[in-house]
Amino acid sequence: MLGPVILAASRSDRMRRLISAAPVTKQVVDRFIPGETVDKVLPIVRELTGNGLELTMDVVGEDITTPEQAAAARDAYLELIDRLKPLELGARAEMSVKLSMFGQALPGGHELALANVRPVVEAAAGIGTTVTLDAEDHTTLDSMFAIHEELRKDVPQTGCVIQAYLFRTEEDARRLAAAGSRVRLVKGAYKEPAEVAYQQKHEIDKAYVRILRTLMEGEGYPMIGSHDPRLISIAQELARTAGRKLDEYEFQMLYGIRGDEHLRLAAEGHRMRVYTAYGTDWYGYFMRRLAEKPANLRFFARSMITKG
Predict the structure, then answer these.
(1) Which residue in 58, 92, 134, 205 is the catalytic one?
(2) The pLDDT of residue 293 is above 60
């Protein structure tokens, strides 16, 4: 399996330098990351929302080593919120955040991340939108869920992400499938040991369906994070069986992947949200996109051969 190899490369400084220096890399990265600044990405926001799509926006960057960098990440999101305000998109443009960007891995990181993310969540609520806390590797999740619970006391629409490949997630889903919750279900994109996570695709897919059924039958708002046509079809059937209306759940897919499917689902009346990342520190995000789907890796390799 190439996925674990690519994920290992995502943590290699040598591979970062090699890939970043390749002439074709920027062209390929642009498929997944439409810009490095707010000014570059706002036209994409207007284009996607003009086509009936919704967004969740991610300022990329996870290699935070100082409190000052964590504060800068907070400020980048506050700038984004300030720039979104005049567009009056409300919940059509929300934000996704990784707590590692807000200092979670630093000494005193739980309290630091909470202190940095709280003003972002409050500012988002102030313009009528919300924030979803992304899931990272399994060692960070207890902290993430505790921060999520704390934030929801004042901003109950704050969402979180759960990962189907982790053994713990079925229990997490039962706890989270409550009234007012917003939960995005993804397969998972980090290299996890066999002690905590399913390793085979068919096992992950089966877990995904079990967890999605729990969310659909619960009282919260499920967000289906998948590009898999079979899982999308299953999600639609589970929603019908649970008696959910089209505005009582949503699909989420990555910018640059299956764009025609984004538009098809929106045209059918589904809420379709595009995960749109931007920023200069794109390497880790880009490598996980390659690891998630073999077609992404083939696309990159083909571009390296034909354009390099």
Answers:
(1) 134
(2) no
The model carries a pTM of: 0.87
Q: Which long-range contacts (CB under 8 A, 24 or more apart) does 117-123 make?
A: 117/74, 117/147, 117/151, 118/151, 119/74, 119/78, 120/74, 120/77, 120/78, 120/81, 120/95, 121/151, 121/155, 121/158, 122/154, 122/155, 123/77, 123/78, 123/81, 123/82
- Concerning whether 205 is annotated as a catalytic residue, the answer is no
Annotation marks residue 184 as catalytic = yes
Whole-angstrom distance, CA of residue 173 vs CA of residue 161? 10
**What pLDDT sits at residue 306?**
45
Pick the catalytic residue from 184, 213, 273, 289. Answer: 184
In percent, the amount of the chain with pLDDT more than 90 equals 75
Count of alpha carbons within 13 angstroms of residue 41, beta-carbon side:
29
